[in-house]
Amino acid sequence: MTTPTSSPRPGTTGRDAAALVLRATLGPMLFAHGWNKIKGPGGLRGTTSWFESLGLRPAAAHARMAAASELAAGAGLVLGVAAPLPAAAAVGLMAVAARTDHRGKGFFVFKGGWEYTAVVAGAAVSLAALGNGRHSLDALVGRRAEGPRQAALAAGVGAAAAALLLKVCYRPEEEANDGPGDGNPA
Prior knowledge:
0% strand, elongated
């Protein structure tokens, strides 16, 4: 739905504030993660090695793609532009992270579990439902995208993109027990 948003609609100031807080929380965090993949202690080379160890092939392309996606989604969320696409990117990023790096480690993030990825993805879907609010570039140009359809779009596009990427590019190392004699064809 596209409507001008120059003056607040009745009852929306709390929603606008909530959207702004979510954008100001998720956006910089995603941007920082993307920046760290490029300029952190290991730089892009370290990120590439890490992605290789996770089974994402080709690792160099995925390291760059993940960094760029986090930078773009983070900036998009901060600015409040192109909703719900930055939220969908956050969902996709978190789904891939949950499947590759956090899988099998339980719930709690301090044990490497998927808690963090679920919270970030859930917050991104919530933001898509709220919309970017009055204090956003989308509002400045008169674009308003909010509601359950936007939330479903963010969740669906993010999950579908992650599933496709994992199907095509996720090749984890074979388990040490896989091979001849254990019932699995080599």
